[in-house]
Amino acid sequence: MNNVVINLLSATQTGPYRIRLVFDDGHVQEIDFQPFLCHAHHPEIRAYLEPTRFAGFRLAYGELVWGDYELCFPIMNLYRNAI
Hints:
about 80 residues; alpha+beta; three-stranded antiparallel β-sheet; 4 helices; 6 strands
């Protein structure tokens, strides 16, 4: 089994709900979060359709998070653009 740990080095917003992610192995992924947010049924997730709230993401310990981990995704899902 491969025990490689992958972390995010940077996250840059490139559109209303798009974020360009750079991983520590050099991989780059640009993800459009709008479909996920629009299809969510939970009001706390849909709240991130508000542009200012969405733009409040940050990197914490190599992960992409919003708030106090109110919204976050498994790192491998981000790496594969499978949210």
